Amino acid sequence: MLTIIIAVVIIILGTIGIVWLIDKFVPKKVKPLINIALWILIGFLAYSTFMSVYGEIQFNQLKKKRYAAVIEKLKDIRDAELAHKTVTGKFTDNFDNLVKFIDTAQFTITQRRDSSIVDEELTKRYGGVEMRKDIIIIDTLDFVPVKDSLFGADTRYKTMMNVPVGKPGAKFELKAGTLDEIPVFEASVQKDVILFDQDQNLVAKENEVISVDDVNGPALKVGSMNEVNTNGNWPKNYSNE
Known about the structure:
The chain has helices at about 1-25, 30-90, 95-105, 120-125, 145-150, 190-195, 200-205, and strands spanning about 105-120, 130-145, 175-180, 180-190, 220-225. By secondary structure, it is α+β, with helices and mostly antiparallel strands.
């Protein structure tokens, strides 16, 4: 964009120079018409330069607002997936199953305590002298619904598969599996979907962004199918998590 702005400024300055030359060398009868046309051109170029800058500012403001809404949804998906793994030992790649899980599953509240018991083998080995060994006992204290723990009375989890902004009807892509026998998952949406109605040149530029203060790559996502990671790919300035 900087190159375009420089080019437009050069054209404006050149046009102003042409106006000056016309004023010096063109016959008086023709001057008014030429001057009006040139000043109209200058005004148009100035307006185009302003809009090219202001348009990108507006795009960045809208982008950040939409990304923030998408990130909140991705955080809900991550929380639901982590709860699913805690209870079942694995992630899921099906939103219907994930919603059903939240509606029905429960966390088990346990307590670990140290104790000791008679070690019969060692007791026999030492001729009946009582020998003991330490053990850990896990007591089940209570059961808490996953839904209440994660969302309380809020039912937003039932629509967490829907991308909240951008292209109407768009849904997040959800994957799950294992990596070196460790469960992994990934939920994502392409920036093209979030910004589908914006200037495509700015969207293409956004897809290629590499910055510590912005979302790198062509998608917003949480988790990964390529590494054991449940983080999102957005910087801290987009979210407090």
